[in-house]
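Table S2 (continued). Query chain:
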Amino acid sequence: MNIIWPFCIALFFKKHHFRFSKVIIFLFLTSIALVIILSASRAAWLGLILSIPIYFGKKSAKWLIPILCFIFIIFALIFIPIFGENFQMIMRNLIPSGIWSNFSQSTYDHEESISRIELWKQSIEIIFKYPIFGAGATSFSSILESKIGIWRAHSHNLPLELMVSYGIPAALLIFIPFILLIKISIEDVFIKSRINSGLFLFDRAWITSLIILSGSQLVDIQYFDGRISIAGWVLLAGTRNIIRKK
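Corresponding output:
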């Protein structure tokens, strides 16, 4: 949904000859946003929010900041009995528990729970032990289980996962060109160009989608899902084509 969301924004702001089309696109835009919210994924929420300033730039601050302040107040009322416990219960009943429970420590307090920060620390320790060639493909889960008795499929961070499996040099050979490609695309599409045509709208959506998808791999590895990896490579290839076109 986060991959689709920037393109929905571009489609909404594209000029349309029929007002009815604008209404349909707006409904589609809000539906995608609602699905992302109801996914109860903190990474998805962050991607939804960050895509707005990435796409629109500084001018989005004047209306994005009030929205974020409103959301912060809602969550404060859920977790802090500012107006009494009765009002707090009303707020908790009003907002689906699947949403606000993601920010409650009790949700993650169980024996088999391990934080992402701890997973990353364990990954770094493995990288320092096998810095050149890595510990081998998909080795993280078995090493983690042997050390602390908890099994996790991966390290929840794609760069760290590659370093654990194949070593630092191999990971750098993959990520340095990737980072340079994103850097150049940002300069060409967001800095040097202006949103003065429908083409620029979708170029910005394309780069925004790639940035959000790439950023999500720092807190989880959806790339192991074939659909996500294919989408990622399509976005990457399209980004290279946008740079060539510029």
